[in-house]
What does this fold into?
Amino acid sequence: MNHSAQLSEEVQAARVPEHEISPLVLNRWSPRSFLDRDIPEEDLLALFEAARWAPSASNEQSWRFILARKPEHRATFYEFINPSNRVWCEKAPALALVLSKKTNAQGQVHAHHAFDTGTATGLLALEATRRGLSTHSMGGFDRDKARSILGIFDDYELHSVIAIGYRGPKDALPEALQAREQPSTRRPLSDILFEGNM
It folds into this structure.
């Protein structure tokens, strides 16, 4: 079955899978240009609903999200996001801090908290793509400052801030970022898949 008709032109030009997969996976990429346009409540909350159903070791469901969609909440997030990211993410109508609980229900170290939270975040991104939204996860932020400002306890690890919104035009970005505003390629499957041993 040929799914190429369901891929955007820019994705078709940049991404050629070695095996057939859902167009949803290929169409998901991380733009920086966002429209200053509100996201309907049902669409925004559906992203976190998708994350809620991620696989979870011992069903601990370690992932947590702090959502900033009101202007005053987004302004608080800007205080700990790196300036190089603020230059583009301030137009996004929603930001979400991704964190995970490092301990399990018994108070012991939960070795899979970060892995499971990454999976939940991936499902969030796919649901966003399905709904015509874009996401861009940022590692460039001051974790200590975010922890202090938002009152986050020590047993939570802070992973990323996700910008969520509708994709904007490339020329709305600073010139230095415009060349990067395209889907990226990936390593060949042979670089990441090993059978039996490495």
